[in-house]
Design brief:
The protein contains 8 helices and 15 strands. By secondary structure, the protein is of the alpha/beta class. It folds into 2 domains: about 1-120, NAD(P)-binding Rossmann-like Domain (Rossmann fold, 3-Layer(aba) Sandwich), CATH 3.40.50.720; about 125-325, Dihydrodipicolinate Reductase, domain 2, CATH 3.30.360.10. Strands 14-13-12-11-7-10-9-8-15 form a 9-stranded mixed beta sheet, with helices on one face. Strands 3-2-1-4-5-6 form a 6-stranded parallel beta sheet, with helices on both faces. Strand 13 (about 265-270) and strand 14 (about 275-280) form a beta hairpin. Helix 3 packs parallel to helix 4 (about 105-115), helix 5 packs across helix 6 (about 175-190) and helix 6 (about 175-190) crosses helix 8. The two termini are about 30 Å apart.
């Protein structure tokens, strides 16, 4: 399979494990996507060698190389544009998140994806972290009864410097579509598409010179059964912390609780029947590997779930911005039966 990298302004090396898992996938070319990028930045990218063709013009790369799969690594305001370009050429895409900056752009891209019929995924890899997957498997096995609530967290370091596109909402979609979409993705994967409305709050107090990106945000998602899921997001993790991020999930049900902390690589079940026990960690394929394998063998399941996750994230940010509750019912992105 011919694999190409389009742009390096984002999470460039997420594909590394996939290359180890699928030796028949090779990076045939790299290309610049936006002004300010440099071909030198691809020099240490996994799988890029002296034989990898390099292009300063991405259209030339797409024309000459005809890749089977492209990874799009661009700032948020450019994601939907480049995704559309590749889909219309019939190229499978793994792209940065979120898919779109707003609901109208998301709807347009959905129409493009439907017409193209081409596999599309975004960098929503957290759901397949094995400790989160263990918690999800326990929920699906009925070990906590009916889920009635959850608490999820992502805390990131701000870092010494953030790109300028984080400064304004013209070039940045907000903390929920950019970071919170990971939580929404793992919640819907674990609980199902059970959310009926959303509201939330945020502050830019820690980084007031970046008003486009909240320092901290909280989101409340109401469930069909009356339960509530709480999502906490922030860029407040100290620089001295041992890792860039701290991701946690707890789901409470009528018969027990599952807890998972990514940094501790743990997943626990607490229930009257089982007491406190460690959950079995599944041996599942890397999420990027799973997507590419589905492209290769034709088992790709469709894009509806991906668009639904993005819709919920965009509506959550809209609810924060407008200071109100927003319905999540009657989505145009229902999974095909």
């Amino acid at each position: 399979m011919k694999f190409a990298l389009l742009g390096h302004s984002g999470h460039l090396d997420y594909y590394e494990q996939m290359l180890h898992d699928l030796p028949d996938v090779a990076i045939v070319a790299v290309a610049l996507a936006i002004p300010g990028e440099s071909l030198d930045s691809f020099a240490n990218a996994p799988g890029v060698t002296s034989e990898t063709n390099r292009y300063t013009e991405y259209e030339e790369m797409l024309d000459k190389e005809s890749p089977d799969l492209v990874q799009i690594c661009v700032p948020p305001q450019k994601v939907s544009e480049f995704t559309e370009i590749c889909l219309k050429r019939g190229i499978a895409v793994m792209t940065e998140k979120p898919l779109a900056m707003d609901l109208a752009s998301l709807s347009h891209l959905y129409a493009v994806a439907g017409e193209a019929g081409t596999p599309l995924a975004a960098l929503h890899g957290y759901r397949r972290m094995k400790w989160f997957e263990a918690a999800r498997d326990a929920v699906h096995a009925g070990k906590i009864g009916e889920p009635l609530g959850s608490y999820s967290q992502i805390s990131y370091r701000w870092g010494a410097r953030r790109p300028d596109h984080f400064r304004t909402r013209e070039t940045f979609p907000g903390i929920v579509p950019f970071v919170g979409v990971h939580v929404i993705d793992w919640l819907v994967w674990s609980l199902g598409d059970v959310f009926t409305e959303v509201t939330g709050w945020e502050t830019t107090a820690a980084h007031p010179d970046f008003p486009g990106c909240a320092s901290q945000a909280a989101v409340l998602l109401r469930m069909r059964n009356g339960g509530v899921s709480t999502v906490m997001l922030d860029f407040l993790r100290p620089a001295a912390a041992p890792t860039h991020g701290d991701e946690r999930m707890m789901i409470s049900g009528t018969q027990g609780v599952v807890e998972s902390i990514a940094n501790e690589e743990t997943a626990k079940l607490i229930s009257e029947q089982a007491g406190v026990c460690n959950l079995e960690i599944p041996d599942t394929p890397n999420w990027y590997t799973a997507f590419v394998s589905s492209v290769q063998d034709g088992s790709f399941a469709g894009v509806e779930e991906l668009f639904r996750m993005t819709e919920i994230a965009l509506k959550a940010q809209q609810a924060i911005d407008e200071g109100k509750r927003i319905s999540l019912l009657q989505s145009p992105y229902e999974a095909k039966k």
